[in-house]
């Protein structure tokens, strides 16, 4: 996934170098004045859009991790995976998007050879972690709800799975760090010398990698997730529970709705980008005059997935919503957030814990 490469397709077509996955772009040589992203109004809009995504992503995902670390009964297996998802989104917002924005605006890589390899790798790594984590969450809930398995994953096992997701994601993203080139290019007819960071694939391998990533990063995981949540929904819909367990069933339904909506948002945000990128790899749209602008807009839509999740948690989950409100009101930090939405301070909990027992799980 060469985000920064394709965002600068207009610039790279000015010289005889390959642009990432584009093998036939040398025949098209537009001038810089033809690039609509050079217009002041467009640049201001892009700066605003990327800055808003970065700000919302940093604040929202940091709050999610903060709450799971701070509140004891938020430390459930599902919430550990949600924290891992938030960490991956934080990585995109803090490490990748600022570099992508600057490269898009300047059409020149200003950050040196090391970052040329690390930034695209970091973004691909985080996206792989996100989709793998969403898949793990769906499979775990499928295992527990559909098959009535009371024994959920313990903390140690969940951490091992999280470590495996990062390891697998690191392997899948590896080619984007390896097949990369940082170089200086001379553009004689406008007397310009610029630094370029682009993909450099062995002949014919760019399309193979792109199609493989489309399958591994989007099609196959979403198929697994969709199957799992359809089965879960059918199970919960047809389940008749004793009155004593009705509250737990309602919480399961709400949590399942929330997590399924997270997946839907991820799929919708990334679909235009994946389709556009595959078309680019097949050399179907690189000659479009507004290629760079269209690509950048699709990239912005995809990056919206990095801040939407905390909004969904706050909208659909009482525990997250109350925790967010307490943080922004600068209220006293509670020891736990309870399923009924109430807050208990450490001193109060110390007085009643012996009578009530441990708090119920948050998600």
Automatic annotation (TrEMBL):
Q: Which SMART domains match?
A: 7TM_GPCR_Srsx (SM01381)
Question: G-protein coupled receptors family 1 profile domain location, by residue?
Answer: 60-313
| Pfam families xref list | 7tm_1
InterPro entries recorded = GPCR_Rhodpsn (IPR000276), GPCR_Rhodpsn_7TM (IPR017452), NPY2_rcpt (IPR001358), NPY_rcpt (IPR000611)
**Can you provide one Gene Ontology molecular function annotated for this UniProt record?**
neuropeptide Y receptor activity
What's the protein's topology in the membrane?
A: Multi-pass membrane protein
Q: Does the keyword Transmembrane apply?
A: yes
Q: Where are the transmembrane segments?
A: 47-69, 81-106, 118-139, 159-179, 215-234, 255-273, 293-316
- This protein's name: Neuropeptide Y receptor type 2
Origin organism lineage: Eukaryota, Metazoa, Chordata, Craniata, Vertebrata
Family statement drawn from the similarity comment of this UniProt entry: Belongs to the G-protein coupled receptor 1 family.
Q: Which domain of life is it from?
A: Eukaryota
Q: Does the keyword Glycoprotein apply?
A: no
Q: What keywords would UniProt list here?
A: G-protein coupled receptor, Membrane, Receptor, Transducer, Transmembrane, Transmembrane helix
* Subcellular localization(s) per the UniProt record: Membrane
Task: Look up and give the organism this protein is from.
Answer: Phoxinus phoxinus
Instruction: Please give the GO cellular component terms listed in this UniProt entry.
Output: membrane
């Amino acid at each position: 996934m060469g985000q920064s490469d394709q965002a600068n397709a207009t610039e790279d077509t000015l010289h005889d170098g390959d642009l990432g996955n584009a093998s036939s772009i040398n025949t098209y040589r537009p001038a810089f004045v033809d690039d609509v992203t050079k217009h002041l109004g467009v640049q201001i809009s892009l700066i605003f859009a990327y800055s808003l995504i970065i700000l919302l992503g940093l604040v929202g995902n940091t709050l999610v991790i903060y709450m799971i670390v701070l509140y004891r009964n938020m430390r459930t297996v599902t919430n550990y995976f949600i924290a891992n998802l938030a960490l991956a989104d934080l990585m995109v917002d803090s490490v990748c998007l600022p570099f992508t924005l600057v490269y898009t605006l300047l059409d020149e890589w200003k950050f040196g050879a090391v970052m040329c390899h690390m930034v695209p790798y970091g973004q691909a790594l985080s996206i792989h972690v996100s989709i793998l984590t969403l898949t793990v969450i769906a499979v775990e809930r499928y295992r527990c709800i559909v098959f009535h398995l009371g024994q959920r994953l313990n903390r140690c096992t969940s951490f091992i799975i999280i470590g495996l997701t990062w390891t697998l994601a690191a392997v899948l993203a590896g080619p984007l760090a390896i097949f990369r080139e940082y170089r200086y290019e001379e553009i004689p007819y406008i007397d310009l010398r610029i630094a370029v960071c682009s993909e450099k694939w062995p002949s014919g391998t760019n399309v193979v990698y792109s199609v493989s990533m489309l399958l591994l990063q989007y099609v196959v995981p979403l198929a697994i997730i969709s199957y799992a949540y359809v089965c879960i929904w059918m199970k919960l819909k047809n389940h008749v529970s004793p009155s004593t367990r009705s509250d737990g069933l309602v919480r399961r339904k709400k949590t399942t709705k929330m997590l399924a909506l997270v997946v839907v948002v991820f799929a919708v945000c990334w679909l235009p980008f994946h389709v556009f990128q595959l078309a680019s790899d097949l050399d179907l749209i690189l000659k479009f005059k507004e290629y760079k602008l269209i690509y950048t807009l699709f990239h912005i839509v995809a990056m919206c997935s990095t801040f939407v999740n905390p909004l969904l948690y706050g909208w659909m989950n009482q525990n997250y919503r109350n925790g967010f409100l307490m943080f922004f009101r600068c209220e006293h930090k509670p020891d736990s957030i309870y399923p009924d939405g109430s807050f208990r301070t450490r001193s109060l909990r110390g007085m009643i814990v012996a009578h009530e027992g441990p708090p119920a799980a948050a998600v």
